[in-house]
UniProtKB/TrEMBL annotation:
Residues 1-20 form the signal peptide. It is a multi-pass membrane protein. Residues 32-59 are annotated as: Disordered. This is TonB-dependent receptor. Residues 95-192 form the TonB-dependent receptor plug domain. The keyword Transcription regulation does not apply. Its main location: membrane. Residues 267-716 form the TonB-dependent receptor-like beta-barrel domain. Belongs to the TonB-dependent receptor family. It is found in: Cell outer membrane. It comes from Asaia siamensis. InterPro entries: Beta-barrel_TonB, Beta-barrel_TonB_sf, Plug_dom, Plug_dom_sf, TonB-dep_rcpt-like, TonB_sidphr_rcpt. Residues 33-53 have a biased composition (Low complexity).
């Protein structure tokens, strides 16, 4: 394979960004022991939880945690969101930010027991599932835009390239809506998802848990988890160690899910300097399940049991990933701070897939292709450094942030195997085990490579006009080079490089201490690239314009002290120079071509926090009008996998003591996703669906240890539903009803 070397690209003009100085870390003081050892939430309570402040200044109604600093322990036990500075690169109040951030807190995650990132994000408006590569990757559609490894999933504000990012080491998940290229560079206009890690604390605490689960029919599972944190010595050094092991039967005909996580972290929590370093190692085995296929007569899924697989038991992905990150925050004084962050992520995997390529409903049989990917390797190296602090020009108070970042991303698949299946497969009376894994390497499909280098400088300026108005302006200069292609010998189908300015502007009006109105204009940029050749044979060169997005948005935000936060957003996003993909049933390949433009506009509403002393909630609703607006074939068609209506509601009720020194909590959530187009051509539609979950927790002190029992039911009605589609042969299935019981002990 031909190697490519990229010269260092000029940073050009430095951009604008706004950030307030990070909060200095102050370890919480111990409280006096209460008479009753009953906890306030379902998880074993911290030994020294910080008291909630009774009064705050208007700009402090929402606590924002510094990037390298652990959040107050009380925030781990409530639905009220606590933003992390790694998402917005600022500790200023989100009421002063002209962009929406929706957060799934640690307590919501603990109550709902989400299975993956898609599951956690059912609580957020405007989110649907995309092509998950047979259930092995996080692919999230934000406001109708998204795709495989689109660069929109972050970990502590730094990019991930591994397929799955959500695990037992996650503390919360934050979604930054709309174009975010000012903060993150190359990006689709739908938004950014940031998985925030658990951070070391100076207060010692160890939690061990075991969980058993079942789908019924002998499909059982086990999980063991350890989460330990505390000081090292008597200084400011702290550690955290998260260990997790999952071994469970897959809910369909056959398959196993196994995963091991080892996630240590260290932190120096000084008064002026905070440094946190994380490492995560994953070893995984996933079923590689493309789901079901459609009946060509009706356009509906085949009339077979949802548990019946259409592939073979060797359809699986095995691999490992490594993630190392470090964040440093340092205060110089006079409000000025420095921030340095670095991340390296890599993943390797092998995957076999015997996949459906045709349906014969007369005979009740399928044609299948015996394919595989061996020697896949992906990596992402990223670094950023920036300064922020206040300045005054005349009577104007300003906060500026200035910095730079760079990223090198490689996606490589060594051997692509392609061969015909030897036997006809009956989907009505399946016989498994006749086929063997593929052994034929396709030279023209192998050495698939996508190589991206980008560098940026950015600047953001925020200044106040009086007591109520806040103006935000910023710009990033982005320089990039991308080469993508495949084959032996290697043939580049993408060879592009360019630079661009990406501005952002916003206005905030503080209508009241707990309310704000905002309006914003933002832009995004993403190079149009493809590993596979375009249907026209054209090579995407530097003369081809990147995908560009622009968004107008306005809305309102609410932050009732220690109670509720809410956002209401109206947005209009337009994207041009769009690369369109569509499966070609004649060639059994996916065709790519440069289209024209797409649009997404809608309304989103999110609410989270404490409704009463005992009742907590998290809820959302979104209306999305998304369509391809310029294309020779698909103009006027709905965006792929983008539902017009989505809604969710999660509730938790604290019943209090039952037998004295104990506590009972219970709750549930419901999730609605409307009808969606299953492909770009709108050749079929996935039906809308509703799912519901329940949970109950019981807390008690046993042998001087806090013990928690939690029972969950996922998909209470055992609904058969289809979260996403790729083409008429790849339609994913949502999981069946699942029961789980977890026992958690705190030391």
């Amino acid at each position: 394979m031909k190697k490519y070397y990229f010269p260092l690209l000029s940073l050009g003009t430095m951009p604008f960004a706004v950030v307030a100085a990070p909060l200095a870390y102050e370890p919480p003081k111990a409280e006096k022991a209460s008479a009753a050892p009953v906890r306030q939430q379902s998880a074993p309570a911290p030994a020294h939880a910080s008291p909630v402040p009774t009064q705050q200044k208007p700009d402090e109604l929402i606590t924002v945690t510094g990037r390298a600093t652990p959040p107050p322990e009380i925030t781990d036990t409530r639905y009220l969101p606590t933003p992390d500075a790694s998402t917005l690169r600022t500790t200023t109040s989100v009421l002063n930010i002209p962009q929406v951030v929706n957060i799934v807190s640690q307590q919501v995650i603990r109550d709902q027991e989400p299975r993956n990132l898609d599951d956690a994000l059912i609580n957020v408006s405007g989110i649907t599932q995309g092509n998950t590569l047979a259930g092995t990757q996080d692919t999230i559609m934000k406001r109708g835009f998204g795709g495989n490894r689109d660069g929109s999933i972050m970990h502590n504000g730094m990019p991930l390239v591994q397929g799955r990012g959500f695990n037992a080491a996650a503390n919360s998940v934050e979604v930054l809506k709309g174009p975010s290229s000012l903060l993150y560079g190359i990006m689709d206009p739908g938004g950014v998802i940031n998985i925030v890690s658990k951070k070391p604390r100076l207060q010692a605490r160890t939690i061990a848990s075991v969980m058993g689960s079942t789908y019924g029919r002998g499909k059982d599972g086990f999980e063991g988890m350890l989460d330990s944190t505390g000081p090292i010595g008597k200084g400011k050094l702290a550690y955290r160690l998260v260990l997790d092991r999952i071994a469970e039967d897959y809910w369909r005909s056959f398959g196993m899910h196994q995963e091991t996580l080892i996630a240590p972290s260290l932190a120096w929590l000084g008064k002026k300097t905070q440094i946190t370093a994380w490492y995560e190692f994953r070893d995984f085995l996933y079923p590689f399940d493309r789901g079901t296929a459609l009946d060509p007569r009706t356009g509906s899924p085949l009339a077979i049991p949802a548990t019946r697989r259409l592939d073979e038991n060797f359809n699986r992905m095995t691999g490992q990933s490594h993630l190392g990150q470090i964040s440093l925050d340092h205060r110089f004084g006079a409000g000025w701070s420095a921030h340095v962050n670095f991340s390296y992520n890599q993943e390797t995997y092998d995957a076999n897939q015997l996949r459906v390529t045709g349906v014969n409903v007369t005979k009740g049989t399928l044609s299948r292709s015996n394919d595989a990917t061996h020697g896949a390797f992906s990596s992402d190296t990223y670094g950023t450094a920036y300064l922020d602090g206040p300045i005054r020009i005349g009577n104007f108070k300003q906060t500026i942030q200035i910095g730079m970042d760079g990223e090198y991303r490689l996606i490589y698949r060594k051997d692509l195997l392609r061969q015909s299946s030897k036997y006809t497969f009956s989907y009505l009376k399946p016989v498994y085990g006749l086929e063997n894994p593929s052994s034929t390497v396709s030279a023209s499909d192998s050495d698939q490579t996508d190589n991206l280098h980008d560098y940026s400088g950015f600047l953001r300026d925020t200044f106040k006009l009086g007591e109520r108005w806040v103006v935000v302006g910023g710009v990033r200069y982005l320089s990039y080079r991308q080469i993508a292609g495949r084959g032996r010998p290697f043939k580049a189908n993408t060879d592009i490089g360019d630079g661009a300015f990406l501005p952002q502007a916003g206005l905030v009006y503080r209508a009241a201490p707990a309310w704000s109105l905002y309006a914003s204009y933002t832009q995004s940029l993403k190079p149009a690239s493809t590993i596979a050749p375009l249907s026209s044979g054209l090579v995407l060169g530097s003369g081809f314009q990147p995908e560009k997005g622009r968004s107008y948005e306005f809305g309102a935000k609410m932050a009732l002290h220690d109670r509720l936060t809410g956002t209401l957003a109206f947005y209009d996003i337009h994207k041009r120079n769009v690369l369109v993909s569509q499966y070609n049933d004649a060639t059994k390949q996916t065709d790519y071509r440069t289209a024209g433009a797409a649009r997404s506009r809608g309304i989103e509403f999110d609410l989270a926090g404490r409704v009463t002393k005992r009742l907590s909630m998290i809820g959302s609703y979104a209306y999305l009008d998304g369509a391809t607006t310029k294309d020779p074939l698909y103009a006027g068609k709905q965006l792929w996998n983008a539902a017009r209506h989505t809604a969710s509601m999660g509730l938790a009720y604290d019943l209090g003591p039952v037998f004295g020194e104990d506590k009972l909590r219970f709750g549930g959530d419901a999730h609605y996703v409307g009808r969606r187009a299953g492909d770009s051509a709108n050749s079929f539609f996935l039906p809308g669906y509703v799912t519901g979950d329940l949970f109950a927790t019981y807390d008690r002190v046993i042998a001087r240890h806090d013990v928690n029992f939690q029972f969950n039911i996922k998909n209470l009605s055992n609904a058969v539903y289809y979260p996403s589609g790729v083409n008429s042969y790849f339609v994913s299935l949502g999981e069946a009803r699942r029961f789980s019981l977890r026992t958690m002990v705190a030391f």
